Structures are given as structure tokens and as C-alpha cells.
Amino acid sequence: MTGASNVLIPSVDLLAYVFFVVLSIGLVSLLMSKKFNISYIPLFIFFGILVGPLLGLLNRTLAHELFSYIRVFGLVMILFTEGHTLSWRMLKRNFGTIITLDTLGLLITALIAALFFSWIFDVPLVVGFLFGAIVGATDPATLIPLFRQYHVREDIETIIVTESIFNDPLGIVLTSVAVALLVPEASSAKVLEGIAGYVGIYPAAVLFFFYQMFMSIAIGVALGMVGYSILKRARVMNFPEVIIFSLALAFGGFLLGEFAQASGYLVATVTGIVLGNHKVFFRDDPGTVKRIMRAVEREVHFNESLATIFTIFIFTLLGASLDPTIITSHLLPGLAVALGLMLIARPLATLPILRWRSFKEYLFIALEGPRGVVPAALASFPLTLGITYNNPQLVQWGEIILSATIITVLASVIVETLWVPFLRKRLLEVRSIEKEMRAAGYRLSS
């Protein structure tokens, strides 16, 4: 089971072996995380690299193929589950910060990253913009379990996690814009090119982004209402039925979103938000509310465990699928770009939120923006385009983008997860329950 042979249809025994290795890595990493009080995300990646490219215990090609599927299923499950736990009260309270990070902040991050990449690798700025768009989105799959582990304050967690969830569509749109500028004949640029024929490429990108956002939110709200209505009318829905129903709702929402050329991930998230905040959105009698709350708690408890398993698979398979030559070929300039993104681009891009947050809170948010699943999934896209359209120049640029993206993902995930407990202790006030209630606007009797 070593080597890098092409395995298109793996045997049952081979899949069982992969599951055994990955779950074993997950168990060891979780135990080490508790023992030494460190983040388990870098451990998943490290052990994935160890059993994949270094020791050859996992076939790298197979790991890559499985990753391409599991990242989709896993991210849907992680985002749907996290949607349940996002407080509508917190979302409303921090709306200005979140929307600023997801629009202006993300665009500034991509542009500064583009300048760094173009300067360090001596390539045209449009190539740098393609890299900046690919690494623009932060990663909810990394942040969600991490903030749960270290008990990061709810308002700060809501801001950073919601930013990560909502900036995926914009990162994809920015990538589509960069591809349209660099390779207008690419199929992925057809939708934008069609709109751009009437209004121009940049207005088309804005229109396409708002379409994705509003359509995704509309479908998610509608599915959440349908889900609540079914739970309300189903007088008897036991544990297995509730779980199956919630999974069908999550993946059905993802499919509807993708079919509508919107964001399936955002649909799943919004559906989870509606169900998780049903007491706010739907005014029913106490008996109905209590019954639905029990059903939602059952599915959330199960889905959280499932999301943890998917997190293990996502990051372990990411490590196992890496080609060491990709990392070593541009290691030093790639690290320079990664550090520029983490320590310069992200802090500069988040400066506008100082109007809402204290300096220490701003600094925590600015230093917590790891790149992960979405950039890793898009990393090979420019190289694939170069090969598809027989463009040697794009192939060369694509190889550089692939290397720099993987290095950036690894560096940001490792560094920005390891310093979470230190930053939390130094920058965030640990609020008491009374302070949290006062901050939320509740009156306490004397």
C-alpha cells in the first residue's frame, strides 16, 4: 500500500486500511492535544505527512482523491453544525465587524498578498492577484474546533468563525475574476464573462457575488423554515429519524445551492442558523418549543461528533496527499509570502474594525486568520488550467502558485493554531457570566 500508483477504484480492504490509519492518527492526536494542551489541527497535518509522503504508509494519490470528496462532505457537516451554535443575538450585535471583514477586509488581503507574491516571485500582478484570491478566504474547519478547545469568548468566536464561513463565496468569486482576467477562455469564467459582456468584468464580479450571497441566504432561510415546520408537525421523531432528517437537510441544501449557482456551503450554514435559533425566529407555545429544542439538541450532539471525525479526515488526508517536492521547490520564498500574509496583509486588512473593537480584540482577530480547506482545494486550479489549455507559461505560474499556497496553508494553520492560547491569555478578557449578560444587553436585578 505504498507508492503513488493511480488508484481510481480502491478496494474495500484498502479503504478500510485508510480509515483505520486516519482514525488512529485522530485518536493519538486528540490524546496528545489533551496531554500537552496544544492544538490538534497541526498534529493531524504532521501525522498525515508522516504516514503519507515520508513513510509511504498511505498512498498519496489515493489520499488526494479521498480528500477531494471528504473536504466537501466534511465542510458541509462542519458548517451546518456550527450554524446551530451561532447566536443570532451575537450576529446582529457584530454585524458591522463581520460584513467589513468579509468584503473590504478580504479584498485588501487579496490585493496585498498579490503584491507580495508578484514582488517575491517576479511574476505579473494579475498572476499575483490569482494567488491572493485563492488564499483570501480563512478556514472555518480549522477555527471551529480550535476555539471550542480553548474556550475563546463567544463574541470574538462569532466574528472570526462567521467571517470564515461567509468569505468562502467571495474568495471563489475573486478567483473566478482572476481566472477571467488571465484565461478568458476557461470554462470557470463563462458565467462572469457572460455578465461582463453587458456591464464589464468588475461590475459583473460584484453582481455575481451579491447574487451568490442573497440566493444562498434565501435558500437557507427557506430550508430552515421547512425543516422547522416538519419537526413541528412530526409529533414523534426519535433519535435515528432526527439525525437522518438533519443530514438530508444539510446535504439537500448544499445541492440546491450549487444547482442555483450559489454557495452550497453558505446554504447549509444559514439552514443551521435558522434551526439553531428557532426560539427567536418562530413564536410557538412552550410545549412545542421544548419538543423541538430536544430534537435539535439530539442532532447537534451527533453532528458535532461527526464534524470532529470529518475534521480528522480533512487535515490528515491533506497532509498525506502532499508532494514534498512542491514544498521544498519554493520553500523560502513561499514562507516569505506566508509571513507577509499573516503579519502584514491580514493586520492591515482588518484595521477598519477598530471602529467597533478595542485594540487588543482587533489584534486577536488580525492574528487569527488561518488558511485551510478552500485555498488547499483551489491550489492546483491554475496548474490544471495551464495543462488543459496547453499554456506553458501558465503551467510555470501554476506550479509556483501551488507551492506557495500549500506552504501558506501549512504555515498559517500551524502558527496561528499554536499561538491561540497565548493570544487568548494576553489579549482577551475572560468575562464572567454577569459581564457576558450585561454585554448582551440583559438587565440584572440588584
TrEMBL record:
<dbReference type="GO" id="GO:0005886">
    <property type="term" value="C:plasma membrane"/>
</dbReference>
<feature type="transmembrane region" description="Helical">
    <location>
        <begin position="40"/>
        <end position="60"/>
    </location>
</feature>
<feature type="transmembrane region" description="Helical">
    <location>
        <begin position="332"/>
        <end position="351"/>
    </location>
</feature>
<keyword id="KW-0812">Transmembrane</keyword>
<feature type="transmembrane region" description="Helical">
    <location>
        <begin position="14"/>
        <end position="33"/>
    </location>
</feature>
<keyword id="KW-1133">Transmembrane helix</keyword>
<protein>
    <submittedName>
        <fullName>NhaP type Na+/H+ and K+/H+ antiporter</fullName>
    </submittedName>
</protein>
<feature type="transmembrane region" description="Helical">
    <location>
        <begin position="195"/>
        <end position="224"/>
    </location>
</feature>
<feature type="transmembrane region" description="Helical">
    <location>
        <begin position="127"/>
        <end position="147"/>
    </location>
</feature>
<feature type="transmembrane region" description="Helical">
    <location>
        <begin position="236"/>
        <end position="256"/>
    </location>
</feature>
<feature type="transmembrane region" description="Helical">
    <location>
        <begin position="66"/>
        <end position="86"/>
    </location>
</feature>
<keyword id="KW-1003">Cell membrane</keyword>
<dbReference type="InterPro" id="IPR038770">
    <property type="entry name" value="Na+/solute_symporter_sf"/>
</dbReference>
<keyword id="KW-0050">Antiport</keyword>
<feature type="transmembrane region" description="Helical">
    <location>
        <begin position="302"/>
        <end position="320"/>
    </location>
</feature>
<keyword id="KW-0406">Ion transport</keyword>
<dbReference type="GO" id="GO:0015297">
    <property type="term" value="F:antiporter activity"/>
</dbReference>
<keyword id="KW-0472">Membrane</keyword>
<dbReference type="GO" id="GO:1902600">
    <property type="term" value="P:proton transmembrane transport"/>
</dbReference>
<keyword id="KW-0813">Transport</keyword>
<feature type="transmembrane region" description="Helical">
    <location>
        <begin position="98"/>
        <end position="121"/>
    </location>
</feature>
<feature type="transmembrane region" description="Helical">
    <location>
        <begin position="401"/>
        <end position="423"/>
    </location>
</feature>
<dbReference type="InterPro" id="IPR006153">
    <property type="entry name" value="Cation/H_exchanger_TM"/>
</dbReference>
<feature type="transmembrane region" description="Helical">
    <location>
        <begin position="372"/>
        <end position="389"/>
    </location>
</feature>
<feature type="transmembrane region" description="Helical">
    <location>
        <begin position="262"/>
        <end position="282"/>
    </location>
</feature>
<feature type="domain" description="Cation/H+ exchanger transmembrane">
    <location>
        <begin position="27"/>
        <end position="423"/>
    </location>
</feature>
<dbReference type="Pfam" id="PF00999">
    <property type="entry name" value="Na_H_Exchanger"/>
</dbReference>
<feature type="transmembrane region" description="Helical">
    <location>
        <begin position="159"/>
        <end position="183"/>
    </location>
</feature>
